[in-house]
Amino acid sequence: MPRPHLALNLFWRTFALLALLLAGGVLAWQQTFKVLEAEPRALESAQQLAGLVNLSRVALSDSDSINRVAVLSSLARSETVQVRVAEAHDRWQPYDATGFAKQLAAELRGRLGPDTVVARSVNGAPGLWVRFSIGDDAYWLQTSARPLSITSSGNSWWLLIALIATVLGSAAITRLINQPLRDLSLAAHRIREGEYDSVLDESTRTSEIRDVNMGFNRMARELAKMEEDRTVMLAGISHDLRTPLARLRLEAEMSVPDEQARQFMAQDIDQLDAIIHKFMDYARPSELQLQPLLLGELVDRAAQGFRDPEQIRIHSSVAADLKVWADDTELGRVLLNLFENARRYGRTPEAAASVEVTAGLSGTWVCLLVRDFGPGVPLDKLAKLTTPFFRGDAARTAANGAGLGLAIVEKSVQRLGGQLEIGNADGGGLFALIKLQKAS
């Protein structure tokens, strides 16, 4: 089944959704507060500006023409509020460009009269300008617009703290939510590796998680019992079959006068005994003690069991000082099954099977490559090679085994904490690539 191009684990997906939700909530509340603050701020600002305009109007109205000039001169020197005479050629821009500005301008017109003009710049000078009239004369009152505007700059520190708290809170909540699922995933992985003693916490307060953990523990106990029963059954069957096979072999050698028939019967009995031995290897429990081992010595030792050059020739070029974390017996079983598979299926009637064994480093892994030069396997059957009791008869020569050799190899490599890849080699033949942890 193809994997999606963009895959996120559950933690990051939940974290992203929670962070997006909470950050959106923070921004929405900040915008809501800003909108709710606009109307009372506009009323307050309009009241202050209207008071300044009325005060200026009273001061100018009660002065004669000479004193009015003095009053205007005094107001022009003020840093916060200035009053100047409005000219007919003045150019101004309307102030009501935002929602807050529209509310402020409307409130000022309601307090000062409909002919009041509110501008944000006059003759290129920015500010908040209010034009009012005294008789036939018109005046501009100028003040700074910054204290009267609604911005988020003053609250940026609060917004930043809220967003940081949102991210940290989302991470903590996501970790808390996903921890039981992570524990379940790790326990399922251990079950897949054959560790049936994995136990999940059944005392958690979350009822759904508690029910799942209890069901998983029951399943693990049932699988452990089934595995134990299967091992005992296969061991009993193998033991019970080997006794009559030994008697058959003895009786065939003593009572069959035909030498050829006696030889064929002995070969059939040996094949049955080898199949029983495969059953025992496949059903063997996975209790291993990994230790640093010299890979070259293990390969040479396994190759010594195949001494007939007419059936198989093994060429090894593994460095003498290359070490891996492995179990001596288990890794030896892997090599023996690979060599036996090559001997059985990689040779032809005219030539012996040729096997090349090489090894190299890839980061913290040691890559062991075992390759033969036989006919290979069709692509549609490659994925089934490690299935118990599957034999690619159509692809390789006479398949008379139990179909457990490569299944045992895969299971043993998993026990060793390694990885197995099987495929057709360039130029013909089958290769098995085994990755094991490098030991110093």
UniProtKB/TrEMBL annotation:
CDD domains: HAMP (cd06225), HisKA (cd00082). It is found in: Cell inner membrane. It catalyses: ATP + protein L-histidine = ADP + protein N-phospho-L-histidine. PROSITE patterns: HAMP (PS50885), HIS_KIN (PS50109). SUPFAM superfamilies: ATPase domain of HSP90 chaperone/DNA topoisomerase II/histidine kinase, HAMP domain-like, Homodimeric domain of signal transducing histidine kinase. Coiled coil: none annotated. Its EC number is 2.7.13.3. Residues 236-440 form the Histidine kinase domain. Pfam families: HAMP, HATPase_c, HisKA, RisS_PPD. Keywords: ATP-binding, Cell inner membrane, Cell membrane, Kinase, Membrane, Nucleotide-binding, Phosphoprotein, Transferase, Transmembrane, Transmembrane helix, Two-component regulatory system. This is histidine kinase.
